[in-house]
Write a structure and sequence with these properties.
The protein is of the alpha+beta class. Helices cover 43% and strands 30% of the residues.
């Protein structure tokens, strides 16, 4: 079961396309972690059969998650403003800005014929930029809940921790038991 989950979570980029050109360009320009999710993959994350989580993801068709280490990539406030402008050039409107769990959140949506067709959630703190590019919609009052649910998932959380601590692990291995290892 875990290998199936891993296969679905970490599908190759050739199998999945970004919902927006802006997210695709961001992913190509900056080194970071990229994860792809489909509706079924998100349902598999709900191992506790949480009805609130099911309601949260019910209108999501697919989603791309990016995490970029801001200092490592020299990602500054000007790049963040440019990123938001990129989404707005693709007909996304800023619907909400808030602060939660030490992160600034911006939620942008794209509508067609009165229906929300796309949602982008940007979460940023001093060290990381997180992007949830969603084909579909999330209730605006639940946008931070989706981010928290992904953050608390053991599979995703481990990938994020591995990504963030990659350099530290290499350093620790080199000094293992007082012997340098290449």
């Amino acid at each position: 079961m875990k290998s199936l989950l891993a296969l679905l979570l970490f599908a190759t980029p050739a199998m999945v396309f970004a919902q927006t050109k802006t997210t695709d360009a961001l992913d190509k320009k900056y080194e970071g972690l990229s994860l792809y999710f489909y509706k079924n993959t998100l349902r598999m994350l709900n191992q506790k059969d949480d009805k609130d989580f099911d309601a949260l993801i019910k209108d999501i068709e697919k989603m791309k998650f990016l995490m970029i280490d801001k200092p490592k990539n020299n990602f500054a406030d000007t790049e963040y403003k440019s990123l938001k402008n990129g989404y707005q050039s693709e007909a996304y409107e800023e619907m909400m800005a808030s602060r939660f769990m030490g992160k600034n959140f911006d939620v942008l949506i794209r509508q067609k014929d009165g229906q929300v067709k796309g949602t982008v959630i940007l979460a940023s703190d001093s060290t990381n930029l997180y992007v949830l590019d969603i084909l579909g919609r999330v209730a605006l009052d639940k946008a931070t809940s989706l981010f928290s649910a992904l953050d608390q998932s053991t599979d995703i959380g481990q990938r994020v921790k591995d990504f963030m601590g990659g350099d530290d692990k290499k350093k620790d291995k080199k000094k293992e038991h007082g012997v340098e290892i290449d």
